[in-house]
Amino acid sequence: MTRIYIYDHCPFCVRATMVAGYKKVPFQREVLLNDDEQTCFDLIGKKMLPVLQHGEQVIGESLDICQKLDEIGDAERVILPQTALAEQFSEAFSAAQPANWKLNFARVTRIGLPEFATDSARDYFRGKKEEMIGETFEEAFAKTDEYLPPVNQALANLPTLTLPSEREGRLSWDDVMIFPMLRSLTLVNGLEWPEPVRNYLNEVADLTRLDLYFDRAI
């Protein structure tokens, strides 16, 4: 039995599940509560997800997990090589990253995800992330109008994202790096999504059998 331990909202975890979905790897999806430290320590000795358990092998780095899933998955479903696009994407988004975190963290515990099903899981996440962003979730949410413009600007300035339909329905390693971050932003109401970027999100989500958060955006 192959198991992938994840948080639904975690971009690093999405890397693993999107490769598994694309490569048609049968696996058990194990969503941990955000404050469940013990399971992580039992698996890999530290609090970190995703974790892949494949037979007797346990792997705890997202890209190492992706490589393993690529290896054991459908050989005909090739993942195209990484190009400079992923780095260009990161550069285009770098200035907006603090605003992105504040928009995302203030909302993600409120959309019904299983990793935040208990008060203690939500409190655990809040304690970590409020320290990281330097304000409470309530303060960050109240400043939505301040944080939307830099992220909208970053979305407008993204490099051209090639659609899977333009490359014979194949996933690329660029997608593995880019899609998870964009997916995280789909829970933010008020963002201005350029049509090509929304089309990219929808196509990659369909290709990898993942959902987006547009229907739950706050």
From TrEMBL:
Domain GST N-terminal: 1-77
Xref: Gene3D superfamilies: 1.20.1050.10, Glutaredoxin
Entry-linked InterPro entries: GLR_AS (IPR011767), Glutaredoxin2_C (IPR007494), Glutathione-S-Trfase_C_sf (IPR036282), Glutathione_S-Trfase_N (IPR004045), Grx2 (IPR011901), GST_Omega/HSP26 (IPR050983), Thioredoxin-like_sf (IPR036249)
Native organism taxonomy: Bacteria, Pseudomonadati, Pseudomonadota, Gammaproteobacteria, Oceanospirillales
Record-given protein name: Glutaredoxin 2
Pfam family, one: GST_N_2
One Gene Ontology term, aspect cellular component: cytosol
Origin species: Marinobacterium lutimaris
